Amino acid sequence: MSTDDIDEAIDWLGKPVDCAACVHQDRLGDGKCKPLRACVHDRYARRIDRFFDWNPDLARDYVTHEYFEVRACAAKAAEIFLLPAMLDDPEEAVRWSAARRLPRRYILRLRSDPHREVRIRIAGRLEGTDLLPMMSDEDYAVRQAVAKKLSPDLLVLMINDADPGVRRVVASRIEQAALMRLAQDTDPVVRLEAAKRLEPADLKALIKDPDWRVRYEAAQRAEAATIGPLAADEDPLVRECARNRLKEAGLEPPSNIVVAQTRSDP
Q: Per residue in 243-259, pLDDT tens?
């Protein structure tokens, strides 16, 4: 249900909205505000936001309002010179609302914002070396956001991140020259992500990987002359893929080869 479907006009203190007592009642007659749809005193953010869409000239008067939703919505429309002071607001929604409109030089200090969502969004706005201090953020989701934005040549600095989810993002974007290091990762999902990007000649090193998904990737894409051992893999999917490729290449599976592997399921 959207806020437009909610048939009540209550302010942030839980009291009914009274248009007759509003200092902006002249705007009601001009169609620039509307009960249950666009009202700065309503507690619902969408209605507040719509009020400032219709009345951007009033936003400056509400950047210090007691209700954080009003401040956050006002930051979207207020003059930009009023926004730097809002980066110190106690509410993360207000800090981010101001930060999204400010130039880079103003938002660098939010790299250490106390709220993870602000830091994640800040990482999404920054580029290049501005992201380097965030590589060691305590929150894995922030580091993932950094790994998605950092240039591939700098991702080698995150190759040993403690979180496998971060390393997986690194494996999906890092330069080819460093990719083999992630193909030897302790986490099978990271190794698989690396395997998907390796050149066929390099996949030979993964035909004895303990995880069947990595071996299957090798069976699919490694040079046919190197996948003979996979024709006897204990996993039926890997074995079938390898044999089909060998057959297509006009090669015979090596005889009497037994590959002892333990299938590792997701």
A: 999 999 998 877 655 54
The tens digit of pLDDT for each residue in 31-77 reads: 999 999 999 999 999 999 999 999 999 999 999 999 999 999 999 99
Tally Cβ neighbours within 10 Å of residue 262.
9
Q: Over the chain, what HEC string results? A: CCHHHCCCCEECCCCECCHHHCCCHHHHHCCCCECCCECCCECCHHHHHHHHHHCHHHHHHHCCCCCHHHHHHHCCCCCHHHCHHHHHCCCHHHHHHHHCCCCHHHHHHHHHCCCHHHHHHHHHHCCHHHHHHHHHCCCHHHHHHHHHHCCHHHHHHHCCCCCHHHHHHHHHHCCHHHHHHHCCCCCHHHHHHHHCCCCHHHHHHHCCCCCHHHHHHHHHHCCHHHCHHHHHCCCHHHHHHHHHHHHHCCCCCCCCCCCCCCCCCC
Amino acid at 114: P
What is the pTM assigned to this prediction? 0.84
Q: Which CATH superfamily is domain 1-101 in?
A: Leucine-rich Repeat Variant (1.25.10.10)
Question: For the chain, what are the domain ranges?
Answer: 1-101, 209-266
